[in-house]
Amino acid sequence: MTNSDIDAQFPLERTRRRILRVNTAGEAGAIAIYSAQLVASRILRSETATFLRAARVHEMDHHRRFRLVMVERGLSPCPGTVLWVAGGWLLGLISLLGGERGIMACTAAIESTVHGHLNEQIRFLQDRDPELAGVIESIRVEEEEHLEHGLAGYDAHCRVARIFTGIVSAVTEALIWIATFGDSARLRAEYSDMIARS
Q1: What's this model's pTM, rounded to 2 decimal places?
Q2: Structurally, how many domains does the chain consist of?
Q3: Per-residue DSSP letters for 7-18?
Q4: Distance (Å, whole) CA 181 – CA 10
Q5: DSSP code of 77?
């Protein structure tokens, strides 16, 4: 599939709207996750609590920036954002059952999934909406810091951690698929095919 084929299958206005809606809802969910995890801040090591506070500030800024772009383009938020927030609180509280490793496993699972989607969004937008691609790129840098912190902080050899991260990744992928009406998965498949053929 060529870029012109991608343009036909993924109209810019529709795809950009879905990208912004899912990203804004995802940031709201991330704020909820870190807020829930900070409920236990008094019993966490100071470095972990400091990371959670900093990550929550990042996510709040990301949410603000995506909302600003949406307002500029006259777009409304994702109708299911409240579900992302409720799910984020639930996931954050569940991750506390695994202590600090549970928190980091949760971070690693979500950020690795999100990171892949941000890469695809940037690739799609870089020639179609460079301004939005730049916003996502700058946000991706901070999300990558979260990912690295999460990967460094949990035991990937622990079976429970692997199961937990697998479930969290699958749920995150499913939410993204629903919010983008499958565009996220189709876009990933098309770019993967293009890379394989090049």
Answers
A1: 0.92
A2: 1
A3: HHHS-HHHHHHH
A4: 12
A5: P
Cα torsion 6, 8, 10, 12 to 10°: value is 110
Residue type, 95: S
Q: How far apart are the C-alpha atoms of 119 and 31, rounded to whole Å?
A: 21
Is residue 105 within 8 A of residue 164, CB to CB? The reply is yes
* Residue 114 pLDDT level (bands cut at 50, 70, 90): very high
Q: Please count the other Cβ atoms lying within 10 Å of the Cβ belonging to residue 87.
A: 17
Distance CA 198, CA 123 (A): 15
In a 3-state reduction of DSSP, which class is residue 167?
A: helix
The model's pLDDT over 15-33, given as tens digits with 9 standing for 90+, comes to: 999 999 999 999 999 999 9
- For the chain, the average pLDDT equals 92
Q: Write down the residue that tokens 């506390």 correspond to.
A: 96
CATH of residue 129: 1.20.1260
Amino acid at 192: S
pLDDT score of 195: 62
* pLDDT at position 108: 95
Nearby residues of 111 by Cβ (< 8 Å), 6 or more positions away = 143, 144, 146, 147, 150
- Compute the Cα dihedral for 105, 172, 126, 64 and give only its sign: negative
Structural domain range at position 163: 3-197
